[in-house]
C-alpha cells in the first residue's frame, strides 16, 4: 500500500469491515437510486431503461434502475471507502462518480445497447447529467454516514 493511497492517508478506513462498506454501498445506492428514479419517472425514461433487458414497462424500468443503482453504489464504497472520509470530500467524490457514470451509462452503454448514437448531447442528456449528479452526491453522503457508523 503506497503512502498516497486512500487507506494509508486514512488508516481508520482500513479497519472498516467489508460488511460496513457493503451496507454503505447498498444503502447509498438505494437512496440515490430512489431520487434519480423519481426524476427518471417524471422524464418518462423508465420504459427505456426496461428496454435494456427487452421489457417495456415503467415499473420494470424502475426495478432495473434500482438494481443498477445498488451495483454502482457498491462500486464506489467497497473499493474506495477511503475516499469517503468526510461529508465535504464525500460530496465531491460523489459528484465526480455521478458524472463518470453519466458518461459511461447515459452516453455510452445505454445508447450502444439500444442502437442509438453514442455521446449524444441534447436536453435529455443534460437532464440525465443532473440526475446522475444528484445520485452520486446522495450515494456518497449516505455512504459517509454509514461508514462513520451513524446509520
Keywords:
151 residues; mainly alpha
Question: What does it look like?
Answer:
The protein has helices spanning 6-9, 11-14, 18-43, 46-50, 58-80, 87-114, 123-147. It is mainly alpha-helical and 151 residues long. Helix 3 (18-43) packs antiparallel against helix 5.
The global form is globular
Number of strands: 0
Determine the number of helices (DSSP H or I, runs of at least 4 residues).
7
Instruction: State the end-to-end CA separation.
Output: 29 Å
Largest sheet: none
Radius of gyration, CA atoms, in whole angstroms? 16 Å
Low-confidence stretches: none
| SSE pattern | HHHHHHH
Structural class: mainly alpha
Offer a quick outline of the entry:
Helices cover 76% and strands 0% of the residues. With 151 residues, it is mostly helical. The protein starts with 5 loop residues before the first helix and ends with a helix.
SSE layout:
Elements: H1 6-9, H2 11-14, H3 18-43, H4 46-50, H5 58-80, H6 87-114, H7 123-147
Amino acid at each position: 500500500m503506497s503512502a498516497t493511497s486512500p487507506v494509508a492517508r486514512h488508516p481508520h478506513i482500513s479497519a472498516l469491515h467489508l460488511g460496513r462498506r457493503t451496507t454503505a454501498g447498498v444503502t447509498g445506492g438505494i437512496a440515490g437510486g430512489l431520487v434519480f428514479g423519481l426524476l427518471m419517472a417524471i422524464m418518462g425514461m423508465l420504459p427505456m431503461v426496461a428496454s435494456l433487458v427487452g421489457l417495456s414497462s415503467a415499473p420494470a424500468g424502475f426495478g432495473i434502475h434500482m438494481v443498477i443503482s445498488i451495483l454502482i453504489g457498491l462500486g464506489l464504497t467497497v473499493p474506495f471507502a477511503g475516499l469517503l472520509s468526510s461529508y465535504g470530500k464525500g460530496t465531491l467524490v460523489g459528484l465526480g462518480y455521478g458524472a463518470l457514470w453519466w458518461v459511461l451509462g447515459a452516453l455510452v452503454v445505454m445508447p450502444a445497447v439500444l442502437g442509438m448514437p453514442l455521446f449524444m448531447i441534447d436536453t435529455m442528456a443534460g437532464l440525465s447529467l443532473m440526475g446522475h449528479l444528484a445520485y452520486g452526491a446522495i450515494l456518497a453522503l449516505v455512504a459517509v454516514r454509514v461508514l462513520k457508523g451513524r446509520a
